[in-house]
Write a structure and sequence with these properties.
By secondary structure, the chain is mainly α. The protein is built from six helices and no strands. It has helices at about 1-10, 15, 25-55, 60-80, 90-120, 125-135.
């Protein structure tokens, strides 16, 4: 599982394993980076599944839609995280561009995740208010 998280971070698991004494701390660092990639993708998957299920209650439609959205966000976020590493080959500008892009993605994901979550949590209150307005 650790190698999967390292791969998600954009690092090479074989190279990390060859680090010798530093391998434990480096593995933990890159496992943490990989976790920062998969956790938002899981939340986006759940939010997308719920959002699509509210207007298309057919499981064979909303489950693939949620998985597709999960894979899309996972790929984009993995790319952005893997470009955050500092290198002497790249200037500081490329690091800050990648960082700003990740921050914009974080805001967009926050909105995308929170809206269906709010609808789910306050579903009864919203339904009750709609019925009151119809009366």
């Amino acid at each position: 599982m650790g190698d999967f998280f390292i791969w998600l971070s954009g690092a090479d698991p074989e190279l990390i394993n060859k680090c010798g004494e530093l391998s434990h701390s480096e593995r933990n660092k890159f496992i943490g980076f990989g976790a920062t990639v998969i956790i938002p993708a899981i939340f986006v998957c759940l939010a997308a599944g719920y959002a699509v299920s509210t207007f298309i209650p057919t499981a064979w439609i909303y489950i693939p839609a949620a998985i597709l959205w999960f894979l899309t966000i996972l790929a984009i976020d993995r790319f952005l995280v893997s470009t955050l590493y500092k290198s002497k080959n790249h200037g500081k500008g490329s690091f800050f561009i990648a960082l700003a892009t990740r921050m914009v993605l974080a805001v967009v994901l926050g909105i995308i995740i929170s809206h269906p979550l709010v609808l789910f949590i306050f579903n009864e209150s919203i339904t009750q208010k709609v019925h009151e307005n119809h009366r």
